[in-house]
Hints:
By secondary structure, the chain is α+β, with helices and mostly antiparallel strands. Helices cover 33% and strands 28% of the residues. The strands form 3 sheets. Strands 8-9-11-10-12-13-14 form a 7-stranded antiparallel sheet. Strands 4, 5, 6 and 7 form a 4-stranded antiparallel sheet that branches. The chain has a 3-stranded antiparallel sheet with strand order 1-2-3. Strand 8 (161-165) and strand 9 (168-173) form a beta hairpin. Helix 2 packs across helix 3 (57-74). The N and C termini lie far apart (44 Å).
Amino acid sequence: MDSKKMRMILEDRLKRDEWSFTYDREKDSLRIEDRTTKKGMNLTIPSVISKWHVEKEKAIDEIVYYIEESLTVMNKELELRGKEKQIFPVIRSTSFPTESNEGIALIFEEHTAETRIYYALDLGTTYRLIDQNIIEKEKWELDRIKEIAQFNMRSLDYTLKEDIVAGNTFYFLNKNDGYDASRILNDHFLQKISQQIEGNMAVAVPHQDVLIIADIRNDTGYDVLAQMTMSFFANGRVPITALSFIYENGKLEPIFILGKNRPVSRGQRNN
Length: 271
């Protein structure tokens, strides 16, 4: 599968009279845009091919569905009032854009050295990140959005799956509701889990649809967590960070896990 063939497949699957396609040869990216509003999305072709090699047609189906839903939402007039139960926080990497494709500032706040918190209005099959224009139109403050989003997040399902590898216990949260990684923001949940951890507690959010919590009881556990997190990060639709975090005293500290070694904190590595 090469870029030209993948681009032709995507253009064929996404063909609409109201949408246009622009290919950037230098960046090897495809932009799908609404002809009227000029709102659209950019796809990096190599990343699509990478996912196709792993999941074949399923990867294309998911990307097409994501683009169709996202472009439809982009061109709707959004309102927050009356939809308070649909507002949630979403975790993104610090490299994630701080503006929409139209240059409008997105509402966000810093979280860790690797992550930021954005806010979204859930629309059922997808969601729309809340931007400055929306809150100005509705005359809302960030603190109000934050409070509502945190409350809604606590009402989500927190059922975990468990796996034991080399004497270390790994817990996975994967509901595919778009907010799996966001559950890392529920400190009450993290504190509750920490009470049953026998070793060191590590947390990872490699992409938006998974939260990993690890009970690390030996050095091998760090290596397993590093490999696991990198694998999830490489295959996630919305990657966040390949680094893990040590959770201690209610705080998250990003760590670099070196093969056959214990973790090194970000601060230690920079020294």
